[in-house]
Amino acid sequence: MSEKKFCFSPEKLMPLVKDGGYCYATDEITVGGRPVGYMYREPPMDDGDSGWRFYAGDESDAYVDDEANHGEFDLNTIANCDQDTLLMLDAPVGAAFARNPQSGEFEPTESPVEPDECLHPDYPIVEGYHALSDVWHVTLPAKFNRTIEEDALVLWRPDMSLYFVAWNNDHQDPMEERLALLKSDLNPDAFDPQEELSDEKQTFSYRLMEDGVNMLYGFVVTERGHLQVAISFEDEAALDTVRATFASIG
Q1: pTM score > 0.85 for this model?
Q2: What are the extents of the domains in the chain?
Q3: Which of 18, 27, 85, 184 is at 20 to 30 A from 136, Cα to Cα?
Q4: Where are the beta strands (DSSP E) in 20-119?
Q5: Chunked in runs of 10, what are the mean pLDDT values of the chain (250 residues)?
């Protein structure tokens, strides 16, 4: 078998990615010199693996299944082969991008990686009925990593993230007054407001689009205090699940 003739010269590679680890790319890119048309990030196989996999985008299953048609490269090498990939390299495990044939730009696309595979094994994984604290709980629709970021409790998975900040009712103010105060500073771009009132709790939520990301913000107010909630989600089709998750908080 003849030795592959790569389209790049190792001595001419620029230091575009520092300590990025290794990745896999097909010969269509590294030998044929074609631009990357599809890229995704899967859970790393070891500490040196970036998780990134690169394709021209039209390779057949048979081509990809043949190990002779792809190889292991430093991530910096592929970044040199196609610098358009640089903006995506910080995306998390589970991310996938395809090049739009009209615009030439990379756009998010469906990933072959199952969301549960993207959960980090070094953080607690929680699911179902979950106690947020001694007084607050939520019912989760799937498995999530649990962590703390600054003052917020965060439950994360690739397609949905939940952020919680709890506040006490130190002055024993009525629920109605506290909810009205919370609603008084509403973002002018907010849309789709929803309110639910009962003797046990009062909730208010609204939606925003932030940098192309769906966000649901809300407050859950009880006699003891209130919970400030933010939920980001990738797919509009998940809205019913997001609303049910918000409604389960108590």
Answers
A1: no
A2: 10-113, 117-247
A3: 184
A4: 22-26, 38-41, 49-55, 70-74, 96-99, 106-108
A5: 84 95 97 97 93 97 95 97 96 92 94 90 94 96 94 92 95 92 91 93 96 93 96 92 97
